[in-house]
Amino acid sequence: MTDAVTTDTVEAGDHACVTFTDAEERLDLVAAFVRDGLRAGQKVVCWTESVRPEALAGQLAERAVRPGAALRRGQLQIAPVDGLLLGKGTGGAARMVDVLAREAEQAGRQGYSGLRVTADMGWATRPLAAADELVAFETAVGDLFADGRLCLICQYDRDRFDAVTLAFAAKAHPKTVAAQVYVDHPLLRVCRQYSPAGVRVAGQLDYRHADVLEQALAESTRLDRHMHVNLSKLDFIDGACAGLIVATATRLPASRRMTITCRRAVALVLDLVGAHAAPRLRVNRVDEQR
Q: Would you list the domain boundaries of the chain?
């Protein structure tokens, strides 16, 4: 049975998958995976398909990862799947496994304690991709984890893969990586954000879920030195929940701070309940950043 884990518990020897519908949440998990690998002195490789390498580097930088120096010294590599893994044409599972094996061997020769790889599996949905190559890759790659040095996370976009393939992916990976979720239904999602660390809220938030919000904020207060409350996809917030966020920021000691990212309408509500007077609170409006 596949174990559901959070990104901060993934370690050397793990073969895991991320299945996602929210591209921003996927990038958040990838950023945390990259950040933790760099901090641990491991080599990190990102094979990207849906996001250009230079764009992915920018997305990592926005999520509290500093890719520049790691890219220059070779500890971090960001490359497109096509060409490197697939070659000209469709490539194949055997080629992909060989590339992974060489990367793991090279990381050891370079003195890294291990190799972390995250791969966007969207290549398997291309018109020329053979359907059985994905199955062959996920089956054959298991032999590379024997020495406990490789950690691999495969990314599956639920909007691109059919239900049968997603079920196979869940079965093929011993672990499934996901954000810790406090509430998830069509009108509201509250989950932990890992990079930068804090809380992510999307949808519509009112007093009926104040207890859930309070739980998420309390955990971030306990775990994170500086709290990031991502409300960029929040359409509505009432005064009760806005006041709860501001009160949390107000209670922070002088050495800590809270940063909120939100839309203009949400920022207005936060301001009405005293955000402008909280010395350790900073509100960034996403509509002003674009």
A: 3-177, 181-289
